[in-house]
Design a protein that fits this description.
Blueprint: E1 7-14, E2 24-33, E3 36-44, H1 53-59, H2 63-67, H3 72-83, E4 88-90, H4 93-106, E5 116-118, H5 119-126, H6 135-141, H7 152-173, H8 176-189, H9 194-206, E6 224-227, H10 237-241, H11 246-250, H12 258-272, E7 276-281, H13 287-302, E8 306-310, H14 313-330, E9 335-339, H15 349-357, H16 359-362, H17 365-380, H18 398-404, H19 423-433, E10 436-440, H20 441-449, E11 460-463, H21 469-476, E12 479-482, H22 483-493, E13 495-497, E14 500-502, H23 504-514, H24 520-555, E15 560-562, H25 570-598, H26 608-633, E16 640-646, E17 657-663, H27 667-673, E18 680-685, H28 695-701, E19 711-716, H29 722-725, E20 726-731, H30 742-757, E21 761-764, H31 768-784, E22 789-791, H32 798-808, E23 812-815, E24 832-835, H33 846-857, H34 862-879, E25 890-894, H35 898-901, H36 905-910, E26 916-919, H37 922-933
Parallel strand pairs: 1-4, 4-5, 7-18, 7-19, 8-10, 8-11, 9-10, 11-18, 20-25, 20-26, 21-23, 21-24, 22-23, 24-25
Antiparallel strand pairs: 1-2, 2-3, 6-9, 12-17, 13-14, 15-16, 16-17
């Protein structure tokens, strides 16, 4: 293990994230000399108020420990004395040192000015392949014990070990040239890693001949499966799914599921008969394998690919990393599968090379810091898929990713010198020859707008999680425009970095001056004219998006404002009119430059082909934005929803406005662009029918436009015995959710239900407001009773929260929209499911409001035709979270009394297969819970 310097690893625990209002409650520090721990500093800080319950749960620090703690000012003085002038190492130093310095200032003490390193930054640069960069995750990857996470002294020890082990990792795996590249970037970015990287580079230079560096790590994400058995054979559905079938002999816990075989036969028949099929497959049917096997067999027999689209990443990964490998291992079927994503997910090899030629011209210092997180990843990735890289967020670091991602407007295709190394073209070539291509709904719909440029020609499609498509399609088939969209294009054309001009136009100008051509002066003047045009009009564009952002913040509802009459907001059309004229002039100027270039002898012009292709790409992009601007200037408000949004961003001066425009009816669009071109489509979900009838889904999706007799329907019931495994209880005695007394009474019911059942509990909400009210009410009580409490948007991401919730066993989880589906928690970890309110859509949501108005204008009951069916399907999704296996048991408690008091309530009750008990008082609920859970 290399040791380059001595240091002190430091960590703190606090009551929250606010440097001013929250307090430090524990400090831990560990001194490391020549790679070994020498001594430590640890203390609690006295706190004059109770510790918040979620902090107690996180740290296990009690009020009693803090009452006996050190005076805060005295503790800070002791820490300063302990640190001296040593180098400080933290995991997220901006938080730890920022908090400490704020408290030092508050106590009239000098702030820390020691050199400081951040292992969070270091891990993001050198370990882009791990799941995330939390202290616990990094420690686990590096085999560092951390039994008492979120206690300062233990976290400080772990931080010290992380630094030492990452240094060792670098020395063994990362070649000198990569470290030198990172050093150059770090110096330009002026970040804290410079001094460390200088030491690393110097060390490697000295030991270059003594150390053989060979990476022993890799990115585990695959995007292609190819199975070529030695003795390939075919199987019928009975041979696969039957009681004596292959699966029964390969899976030790395999159970014959007649519903699964029934669905597989129906899918097979649909493919063979060129039919479309709607399948509702209840929980436990095993629908994934029921469509994967027929799809593979059909693809092999007909030598054609089958596209499979999912809504969630979880299902996509389940299919590719779990189900299909299981099929490969069980059957001698020769097949291949490609996991394909949209173009913007992939790195462009050409743009990557060009970006590195002059970092200071292409990137700001801040952007260079983000670019550092790509260096190791780019060197080792086999796929170029940015989702592999946990260190880099292409949305947060959009300005960097836009410059290096694959872009259809600036793609040279087969003419590109990097074509053979192109990640995107490579995966598309594999997809074209694969039996199955797995995508998500976003790519499916985006490809319809792009005339199948990503997926190529295909005739057979399976859409899983199909119930999401009616809500997703209008947004995906519509358009959105933000300042960032237009500004990124401006930056591609012209930007100034460190007094240097960069972009398509300045680069063209530079090459014009280097070329021996007769019309050099003319081209230079035209380029300058285009640059000045952008400079002059960029302010107008910025002002428009600032104005609409301010308008939304002033007059909108939850960050959105629907536009029903543009005459009320004349400033928008005035701005758009000016921007459209500017855009047309810009397009003309670029066209003149392109036409001028085409008549020049390419042999005498520097970088001729590159400049020509850049101008062609710029013209395509100006045409796309021109079309969008015209739609926004003259919107069709009868058949489209038109609304403004204000994005959340810390920079107060940033133009926050966003335009959105979406079709209200998607049926005809889907028919014209999708259905007419396909032989067979399989739509499947656990919830696309209402009382076993598919009419609502079919009408919304335009399936009623297809020729009669070519759309089959099938409902496959769940194999679970819901009459024995679960009981639904409705609290009919509670006031309606809008009643002022509902909150207090429902809180009491929830608290007592948790206390009596003493089991894993999940509560589903329709709003964060309700979730936060329940969280605040429960947190202290649950902490006192030793019951862990997890809540959405409370400091932990969804996947990590579900993992912890399941691990704890008897915990409580509060979730909103995304938790109503895609949650699979078997056994005792989830035995009580509470539905706080019926999941009706928010009627003021712009696209919902517009569709409701359209239905009313057509003389239809918008509630019965839209609001109610949607709510029933969502209700069924929520109900489905409870029983996931044949051995699961549990209670569903519905607190919304409308299910028993409104006429439409019976439709909710009839939509689920479990028995329903309408309770008349709280004692009835508590008594039933006590008997069910044996408490």
């Amino acid at each position: 293990m290399i040791t380059l310097f001595n240091f002190v690893a430091l960590d703190i625990e606090t009551t929250g994230f606010d440097f001013v209002d929250d307090e430090i409650i524990e400090i831990g520090a560990v001194r490391v000399v020549r790679g070994e721990k020498k001594d430590e500093f640890s203390t609690f800080l006295k706190l004059g108020k109770p510790v918040p319950a979620f902090i107690k749960q996180l740290t296990h620090i009690s009020d009693e420990q803090l009452q006996a703690g050190e005076n805060p000012k005295a503790a800070l003085i002791q820490l300063m004395e302990y640190l001296g002038n040593d180098i400080i190492v933290c995991h997220n130093k901006s938080f730890d040192l920022g908090f400490i310095n704020k408290k030092l200032e508050a106590n009239d003490l000098a702030i820390l000015k020691n050199e400081a390193l951040d292992t969070l930054d270091l891990s993001r640069v050198y370990l882009p392949f791990i799941l995330n960069h939390k202290l616990e995750t990094v420690a686990e990857y590096l085999s560092i014990s951390l039994e008492n996470a979120h206690r300062a002294i233990y976290d400080a020890e772990a931080t010290a070990q992380i630094l030492l082990k990452i240094l060792d990792f670098i020395d063994k795996n990362i070649p000198l040239q990569l470290n030198f590249k990172l050093l150059e970037l770090s110096r330009y970015a002026k970040n804290s890693l410079s001094s460390l990287l200088e030491k690393v580079v110097e060390h490697q230079k000295k030991h270059a001949l003594l150390t053989k560096r060979k990476a022993d790590f890799q990115f585990h994400n695959r995007n292609y499966i190819s199975h070529k058995p030695a003795h390939p054979r075919d199987y019928n559905m009975e041979e696969i799914f039957g009681e004596q079938g292959v699966f029964s002999g390969k899976f030790w816990n395999y159970e014959l599921r007649e519903g699964q075989k029934q669905m597989a036969l129906a899918v097979e028949a649909a493919f063979n008969n060129m039919e479309h099929l709607l399948v509702e497959a209840g929980t436990g049917v095993g629908k994934s394998l029921a469509y994967l096997l027929p799809a593979i067999r059909y693809s092999i027999a007909e030598k054609t690919k089958v596209v499979i689209s999912t809504n969630t990443k979880n299902l996509q990964e389940q299919l590719f990393y779990k189900d299909l490998p299981a099929v490969r291992d069980c059957l001698d079927l020769p097949f291949s599968v490609t996991l394909l994503k949209g173009r913007r997910n992939y790195l462009c090899a050409r743009k990557w090379q060009e970006a590195q030629m002059d970092i200071t011209r292409e990137f700001s210092p801040e952007e260079a810091g983000s670019f550092m997180k790509l260096i190791i990843w780019e060197n080792f990735t086999q796929t170029g898929d940015i989702s592999e890289n946990s260190s880099f967020n292409p949305n947060k670091d959009n300005s960097v990713w836009k410059k290096i991602m694959a872009d259809r407007y600036f793609c040279n295709g087969k003419k590109c010198q990097f074509y053979s190394k192109c990640f995107l073209m490579e995966i598309r070539r594999k997809a074209e020859k694969s039996n199955l291509v797995i995508i998500n709904h976003h790519l499916l719909l985006a490809d319809l707008n792009a005339e199948n440029s990503a997926l190529g020609k295909y005739e057979n499609l399976i859409i899983d999680e199909a119930h999401n498509l009616p809500h997703l399609a209008p947004v995906e088939l519509g358009l959105s425009l933000s300042f960032a969209d237009l500004n990124n294009f401006f930056q591609q054309l012209f930007a100034v970095r460190n007094r240097y001009q960069s972009g398509i136009l300045p680069n063209l100008k530079s090459d014009v001056k280097k070329s021996k051509i007769s019309n050099q002066d003319f081209l230079v003047k035209k380029i300058d004219s285009a640059i000045n045009l952008i400079k002059d009009n960029k302010v107008i564009v910025s002002d428009l998006f600032k104005r609409i952002g301010e308008l939304v913040e002033k007059s909108g509802n939850y960050g959105k404002l629907r536009i029903t009459d543009l005459e009320k907001y004349k400033f928008i059309t005035d701005f758009l009119s000016k921007i459209i004229l500017f855009w047309e002039e810009l397009s003309t100027q670029i066209m003149i430059l392109k036409d001028s270039l085409t008549i020049i002898n390419s042999e005498v012009f520097v970088n001729y082909q590159k400049n020509l292709e850049n101008l062609e790409g710029a013209l395509l992009r100006t045409a796309e934005y021109h079309s969008i601007l015209l739609n926004l200037y003259n919107p069709e408000l009868k058949d489209f929803a038109f609304w403004l949004e204000s994005i959340k961003i810390e920079d107060e001066n940033y133009p926050k406005g966003v335009f959105n425009y979406a079709p209200l009816q998607i049926n005809q669009i889907l028919y014209d662009r999708l259905y007419k071109n396909l032989r067979s489509i399989i739509f499947t979900s656990a919830t696309i029918a209402i009382r076993n009838i598919f009419k609502y889904f079919s009408n919304r999706m335009g399936l009623d436009l297809l020729e009669a007799g070519y759309v089959r329907e099938l409902v496959v019931d769940s194999p679970f015995d819901y009459t024995k495994q679960t009981q639904v209880m409705v609290s009919a005695f509670l006031p309606e959710p809008k009643d002022k007394f509902f909150l207090t009474q429902s809180l009491e019911i929830i608290k007592n239900a948790i206390d009596i059942s003493r089991t894993g509990t999940m509560i589903l909400f329709t709003s964060y407001k309700d979730l936060n009210n329940v969280y605040d009410y429960l947190s202290e009580d649950l902490y006192r009773n030793g019951i862990p409490l997890f809540a959405q948007n409370k400091g932990i991401n969804r996947s990590a929260m579900l993992k912890e919730f399941q691990k704890k066993g008897k915990a409580v989880l509060l979730g909103t929209n995304s938790f109503w589906e895609g949650v699979d928690i078997p056994g005792e970890s989830l035995e009580l499911l509470i539905l706080y309110k019926l999941p009706f859509m928010v009627p003021s949501e712009p696209i919902v409001e517009a569709f409701l108005e359209k239905l009313q204008m057509e003389g239809k009951d918008s509630f019965m035709h839209y609001m109610l069916p949607n709510s029933i399907l969502k209700f069924r999704q929520g109900f489905g979270r409870l029983i996931r296996h044949k051995t699961d048991k549990g209670i569903v408690l519905v607190l919304d009394n409308r299910i028993s008091t409104k006429k439409y309530g019976k439709y909710f009750i009839e939509s689920i297969p479990a028995p329903t008990l309408i309770t008349s008082n709280d004692i009835e609920i508590y008594d039933y819970l006590g008997r069910w859970f044996g408490t």
